[in-house]
Amino acid sequence: MKKRWICLFVENEIGVLARIAGLFSAKAYNLESLTVGRTEDEKVSRMTISLTGDDKTFEQVKKQLNRCVEVIKVVDYTDRAVYRKELMYVKISGCSGEEITDLFRISRVTGTAIADYTRSCVLLESVRTQEQNEELLARLNRDYSGRIEIARGGSVAVEAAGRYSTETNSQD
């Protein structure tokens, strides 16, 4: 089993997302992350999908995706140099003044932002890789377990422009 990244360019129409998700479901793949957004062409949407699977089944899924009428292009980012980021918000409630100071320090060190705060609550905004966000959550769960609310937007990815094209899965 291997972590996979795939990018689909699809027709921007009602029902396309459901059909694509159904295809993955039929192959018993659990989509770890799925983001969809319109491209520079309003008639085309870009899907970035993260999942884990074996080579044989993944190849079958790619072939089936290529056969879908609504799919314009399938790009396997698994072994390509890409830039990918995930949006994540973490709200920590019931904080003391000392804990709020600590959360501001954590934000500075990790390169996250304080999106909002009150006397007892801090809202962190993180636009980093999925792995970096997982590390941040592990750190926060150690000290603030039971007081955390998480909202994650899923990863988006784009192939490197060329300058770092010899690197695989760049994350900066």
Q: What do these coordinates show?
A:
By secondary structure, the protein is an alpha+beta fold. The protein contains 4 helices and 8 strands; from the N terminus they run βαββαββαββαβ. The relative contact order is 0.20.
Structural class: alpha+beta
The total of helices stands at 4
User: How many DSSP-defined strands?
Assistant: 8
List the strand order in the largest sheet.
Answer: 2-3-1-4
Integer-rounded radius of gyration:
19 Å
Q: What percent of residues adopt helix (DSSP H or I)? A: 25-40%
Poorly predicted ranges: 165-172
How would you sum up the global shape? elongated
Oligomer: single chain
Strand content: 35-45%
Mean pLDDT: 90
The SSE string, one letter per element, is EHEEHEEHEEHE
Largest sheet features: 4 strands, antiparallel
The first-to-last residue Cα distance is: 25 Å
Q: Keywords for this structure?
A:
disordered C terminus; 172 residues; 40% strand; 31% helix; four-stranded antiparallel beta sheet; alpha+beta; 4 helices; single chain
Sequence-ordered SSE layout with sheet pairings:
Elements: E1 2-11, H1 16-26, E2 31-38, E3 44-53, H2 55-67, E4 71-76, E5 82-92, H3 97-110, E6 113-117, E7 122-128, H4 130-144, E8 148-159
Antiparallel strand pairs: 1-3, 1-4, 2-3, 5-7, 5-8, 6-7
